[in-house]
Amino acid sequence: MLETKAKKKNLRDFALLIANRIEPLRDNEDFKNFSKDLNMKVLLNATDAKYAALISVKNGTFTVDGILNDDKKALKKKALGWNGKIATTSLIFFEMATRKFTQGEMLKKILSRKIKIKGVPSLIAFQKMVNFLEEESPKHGIKIDKNKTLIAARLFYFTGILHGILGILARGLLELSVTALIFSFFVILLARILIKLIKYNVMNERPVIISCTTICFLNTTTYLTLILTGATEGRFYLDIFMVILIGFNVINFTIFFGSKAKFDQMDNTEKISYFSIVILRGMGIGLLFQILGYIGNPPKPNYIMIIYILIFGIANMFYGERLYSKRKKIGIHIGAIITLVIGFVFAVILTFIFPSPKFVVYVILLMILIAIRIFYFYEKWTSGMLKSY
Fold first, then answer.
1. Distance CA 253, CA 368 (A)
2. Which of 104, 136, 233, 300 lies at a 20 to 30 A Cα distance from 158?
């Protein structure tokens, strides 16, 4: 009874403010396109107001209902069926709406519990809805094959289970077993997050799909190296298992890469750049994975390799993120090229001092990356698309 009464009669106070704010979305074609197959509810609760706002989105339209804020039980998920919730003060809601603080400041407020959130994927979808009120971008009208990406995400989840099985089967082979179990954990985690984001049509809004693409590449190169170096020690069935996983990774990589490239409207030059970014991120993670091997290298830790891995593993991950998020800044591109060249020189020297098949692969990938990054910089510099600030 309480729910019915609130939903039908209490559109006032904070709830009325929210309703008026998002009302223009009804005539927004981008919103209709985005939400035509959505079915979600988001609760915005201004804790110092009399009414919370429940936004229900379904089949390209929405409703806003006022919910009395004096009974906590009436605001619970069980009572209202919401998928996402934000609870904070009216002032902070206003600051969020007017972008008064940065993402870092918002994170601090979340960690300090000044902002309480639940159901992040649906909240990301709601944020995208709000963005339609503020910006016009042709990419919102791009049709991404959601079902195709969802199939890939589920296949990605399945490969996470296969990684776990491989880790168990490889018992006694420390490097292969540990590597497979680590991949199993991260693949299953990322796949679960991606599946939730796909449900709310925001799989390309967050870096999760980039991370999934990176893991597919990293896993492929890692297992190829383990096969070629005989890491299975004659257990041929483990080689077959890894080949099957490599095949799945190639399929997932192609779909994830294509989805992001289409969403961002990448031309061929941007696609090549994005490919190099995925490689760079994968190399950074791959290097840091190797550090345990050098820490336990008998008769004592290989401090030279450990220092190299720490410096350039972190640098590769840093530039792998910045080359995408800050791709119009000249300094990022110059810094990345210089870092890659220095890393290459030292990597060649260390390959002769401490021979390793993995490091040979790393050196080859560095050569490819340097060529791509120089090509991309030249193309964008001559076309005047880079900025010095």
1. 19
2. 233
b or e along 293-330 (b: 16 or more beta carbons within 10 Å of the residue's beta carbon)?
bbeeeeeeebeebbebbeebbebbbbbbbbbbeebebe
The three-class DSSP label of residue 2 is helix
Query: Helix, strand, coil shares of the chain as percentages rounded to 5?
Result: 70, 10, 20
Q: Angle 357-382/208-228 helices, nearest 10 degrees? A: 140
Main-chain dihedrals φ then ψ at residue 170, nearest 5 degrees: -85, 20
Predicted confidence band of residue 75 (pLDDT cuts 50, 70, 90): confident
Whole-angstrom distance, CA of residue 50 vs CA of residue 69: 5
- Give CATH 3.30.1050.10 domain extents, the chain: 2-139
- Alpha helices, DSSP H only, in 264-356? 268-295, 303-325, 330-353
CATH domain 2-139 topology: Nonspecific Lipid-transfer Protein; Chain A (3.30.1050)
Q: Is the pTM of this model over 0.70?
A: yes
Helix (H, G, I), strand (E, B) or coil at 243: helix
Does residue 203 carry a pLDDT above 80? no
Q: Which of 128-132, 173-177, 351-355 has the lowest mean pLDDT?
A: 128-132
Q: How far apart are CA 287 and CA 69, in angstroms?
A: 51
Bridge partners (DSSP) of residue 41 are: 56
The residue-averaged pLDDT of 242-246 equals 96
The string of pLDDT tens digits covering residues 260-274 is 888 888 889 999 999
Helix 174-199 to helix 120-131 angle (10° resolution) is: 50
Q: Could you tell me the strand order of the sheet in which 39-46 lies?
A: 61-68, 51-58, 39-46, 84-88, 116-118
Under 8 Å between Cβ of 289 and 339: no
C-beta pairs of 167-170 under 8 Å, 24+ apart in sequence: 169/237, 169/238, 169/241, 170/232, 170/235, 170/238
Task: Please answer whether residues 196 and 212 qualify as being in contact, where contact means their C-beta atoms are separated by less than 8 angstroms.
Answer: no
